[in-house]
Fold:
Amino acid sequence: MKTRWDTCQTGSRAIWLIPELMDLHMPDWRSRRDELNQAPLEAEAWGSEKRS
Structure:
């Protein structure tokens, strides 16, 4: 699928963005990406807790 930002592949669940547009609209995107990539990943089981 083609978008104005770039493309996404629905089968592989990947999104490819154009860095020049990111630089224009979110100049600090690289530092945000690095911060997110350093964060630990966890999976939470939603709705598995018993409610009283």
